[in-house]
Amino acid sequence: MWIRLRRLHFGGQSFTWRARIRCVQGNGACHRCIRVRAWGAGKTGRALQADLLSATWPPPWGECDGDDAYPTASDVRATIGYALENGWPPAARGGTLVLTEHEHGDRFGLPGFLLTDRLVNPDSPDPTTRVIRANKITDEPHSTATAWAANDHRLTRLATPSLLLPAASRTSHGHSGRFSQKGSPARSANPSAGRMLPR
User: Fold this and answer.
1) Which helix (DSSP H) or strand (DSSP E) does residue 99 occupy?
2) Residue 128 scores a pLDDT above 60
């Protein structure tokens, strides 16, 4: 099946990306999941991959088939910015850096999305439990996080009162392209943090 490739710019560099809609089964509901892949140096460079779990709750009628969650270009730009800050070398030759839930789930989160490993690891944490918990955190009036707004030149740290936008306020085309980072934004001590896959 043909998948559209899109282009965006970040920090003066051009990136190509694509997004494929998938579904993951949780203990109680089926959830939409979008696999995002990006390249900064063509298909011979090191790819970036992130499986974004929709945080929509309660699930719409039809569950994953009725969920219209989809990352915008701003969301992908923010994801690229996070990956560059955490060791992604797009100019390196071959392979894929995966933003895994296990390694990055506690520090990364787009409004309306969570990282998930369920597409590649059926034993990873239950997506339904995680989505419910994320929405409970959102509803807490005093919850705080550090958000990063990405643009073409820099990442700007902002104060934000919640980790995720409520599902009712998010649409497939209109939500923010920021991502939140729990606690300190310090980089990992391992510059190559992330799981490498062969091309």
Assistant:
1) strand 96-99
2) yes
